[in-house]
Amino acid sequence: MSREQKQLLLEIMQYSFALVETNLYLDTHPYDERALKLHNSYSQKYNELLSLYEAKYGPLRYTQMSGCPWAYINDPWPWEIDFDVI
Amino acid sequence: MWIYEKKLQYPVRVYSTNPALAQMIIEQFGGADGELSAGIRYLTQRWTMPTNQAKAILTDIGTEELAHWEIIGTIVWKLVKDATIDQIKGTPFEAHYVNHGKSPYPHDASGVPWTAAFINSKGDPIADLHENMAAEQKARATYEWLINVSDDPGVIDALRFLREREIVHFQRFGEALRIVQEELDRKKYY
Predict the structure, then answer these.
(1) pLDDT in tens, A26-75
(2) pLDDT digits (tens, 9 = 90+) for B47-81
(3) Do A72 and B57 count as a contact with CB atoms less than 8 A apart?
(4) CA–CA separation, B106 and B29 (whole Å)
(5) pLDDT digits over B77-136, tens only?
(6) CA-to-CA distance for A64 and A49, rounded, in angstroms?
(7) How many Cβ pairs closer than 8 A exist between chain A and B?
(8) Which residues on chain B are in Cβ contact (under 8 Å) with A23?
(9) What is the per-residue DSSP string for B78-105?
(10) Contact at CB, A78 and B61, closer than 8 angstroms
(11) Please, are residues B12 and B39 in contact by the beta-carbon 8 Å criterion?
């Protein structure tokens, strides 16, 4: 996994985690407009980065498109990535 | 349903090979207060929750726990993947190795296999949400004991992240409990 790919993946992971937090908060505060605004802006950025990543490196989710061969299976799988070397 | 996303929730960095530590971390892979127990507990309790907020919080925290289970498995794997037989022999991981090789397996640190008896689903939202709040505090305490016995800065970093999540989940379950109590009170007619 190239340095560039790893950095983009890390950025996606950061937005993805931010969405986990806003989601849990909104589950019990569904009328909080400030949190909703934050969630929606993270969501937009997350989807942009995800599209960019998947077009370049293949699907992170099986619901996405791929060239031939099916790139979803490509390594490294999440537990094989060396995050200490960037 | 669920859709897998091919990424970890938190980047796992492990700087050492340490089968003995792996055997301790596995407490959170298949122990009573571990991530598997948490995920199965919350996802199972969803059917009898009376409010949309509680249904959502159980679904989403339950799902997050499965991502944490994947993080724990990854820490364990990275601690043992390069271990030689000499590095395994004489450590607490040796008994695990003769049955499972280097694969993680859902048992606790002393080898007791995961069982559904670790969790409950009472069909009573007040009882279930209290159980969940206690479960989050017990998991938080386990992470503190694990941090105390860890000497790899990468492992400690991931354990600190997971400990923090227990605190957030405790907070959200407390809010769900208050919402459910208000709903049940509202439904009482005299």
Answers:
(1) 999 999 999 999 999 999 999 999 999 999 999 999 999 999 999 999 99
(2) 999 999 999 999 999 999 999 999 999 999 999 99
(3) no
(4) 5
(5) 999 999 999 999 999 999 999 999 999 999 999 999 999 999 999 999 999 999 999 999
(6) 14
(7) 74
(8) 60
(9) HHHTT--HHHHTTSTTHHHHHHHTTS--
(10) no
(11) no
Half-sphere exposure of B7 (CA within 13 A, CB side): 25
Give the closest residue to B36 by CA, choosing from B112, B118, B137: B118
Structural domain range at position B62: 19-103+122-186
Instruction: Tell me the CATH number at B97.
Output: 1.20.1260.10
The three-class DSSP label of residue A79 is helix
User: Which positions in chain B touch A77 (Cβ < 8 Å)?
Assistant: 6
> Taking Cα atoms as reference points, which of A65, A39, A14 lies closest to residue B7?
A14
Bigger pLDDT: B190 vs A27:
A27
Residue whose token pair is 């009328």: A31
Q: Parse chain A into domains and list their residue ranges.
A: 3-80
End-to-end CA distance of chain B: 41
Dist. CA A24–CA A29, nearest whole Å:
9
Taking CA atoms, what residue in B is nearest to A27? B53
* Distance separating alpha carbons of residues A18 and B168, to the nearest angstrom: 13
The ipTM assigned to this model is 0.96
% of chain B surpassing 90 pLDDT: 97
**pTM beyond 0.95, yes or no:** yes
* Number of structural domains in chain B: 1
Distance from CA of A27 to the nearest CA of B (A): 5
Nearest CA in chain B to A9: B7
Computed over every residue of chain B, the mean pLDDT equals: 97
